[in-house]
Design a protein that fits this description.
Layout: E1 12-15, H1 25-34, E2 39-45, H2 57-66, E3 70-76, H3 80-90, E4 94-98, H4 105-114, E5 118-123, E6 141-145, H5 158-161, H6 164-171, E7 176-180, H7 188-194, E8 198-201, H8 203-206, H9 211-227
Parallel strand pairs: 1-8, 2-3, 3-4, 4-5, 5-6, 6-7, 7-8
Length: 228
């Protein structure tokens, strides 16, 4: 494993490879890390919990070989407790699971920490934010979905992003709050204004020829919101 999540207190862009060119994935990842990003977001989907299929541990293992960036692995799968160890063995640094998929999130978090990775819990747009209140203090990051999970390129859901407000109010600056879905230079300031500090961006980064410029625009717009 390459590292740990950045310490709280910084705004981070975590490009999602869901929108990258998989025929040139090493180059795609190199472009964003050379632009200064410290995290790469990997969306793992099983075609059951969400209506899409993406990558498994063998691809994560290959990605691990080509980057020192933190691999932020988001398990959008029905049985994360069963499969998380395989992704950790493949090189994940951070594992996020959905609160909707586990009966005992505390056990899941404990198991992740015991295996040497940081833990995150996430919730879908329709899931009440209160559902993660007990688990959040045990995690290094909470992920708020700002689209319905499954596909990239969807429109940002403002009502879902507003869940960051009670999370930040309740847990203060020591917890990273990540948002995923519809993030770009226009929506990043909204998310940061609500309390997010970690911005998953797929199409807004990999859909642009100038990846460094796209990342810079997101960070600059987010920084302006953070100063207000």
């Amino acid at each position: 494993m390459a590292g740990r999540l950045p310490k709280p207190g910084t705004i981070e862009v975590a490009p999602s490879i869901l929108s990258a060119d998989f025929a040139n994935l090493a180059s795609e990842i190199r472009q964003v890390t050379e632009a200064g990003v410290r995290m790469v977001h990997l969306d793992i989907m099983d075609g059951h919990f969400v209506p899409n299929l993406t990558i498994g541990p063998p691809v994560v293992k290959w990605i691990r070989r080509c980057t020192e960036a933190v691999l932020d692995v988001h398990l959008m799968i029905t049985d994360p407790q069963r499969y998380a160890p395989r992704f950790i063995e493949a090189g994940a640094d951070h594992i996020t699971f959905h609160i909707e998929t586990v009966k005992n999130p505390f056990q899941m978090i404990e198991e992740l920490h015991a295996q040497g990775v940081s833990a995150g819990v996430t919730l879908n747009p329709a899931t009440p934010v209160e559902s993660v209140f007990e688990a959040a203090p045990l995690c290094e990051m909470v992920l708020v979905m700002t689209v319905e999970p499954g596909f990239g390129g969807q429109e940002f859901m403002d009502f879902a992003a507003r869940k960051c407000l009670p999370l930040r109010e309740r847990f203060g600056p020591s917890l990273r709050i990540e948002v995923d879905g519809g993030i770009n230079a226009q929506t990043a300031p909204l998310a940061v204004g609500y309390g997010a500090d970690t911005l998953v961006a797929g199409q807004a980064v990999f859909g642009e020829q100038d990846r460094a410029g796209a990342i810079r625009r997101i960070l600059e717009s987010a920084a302006r919101a953070a100063r207000q």
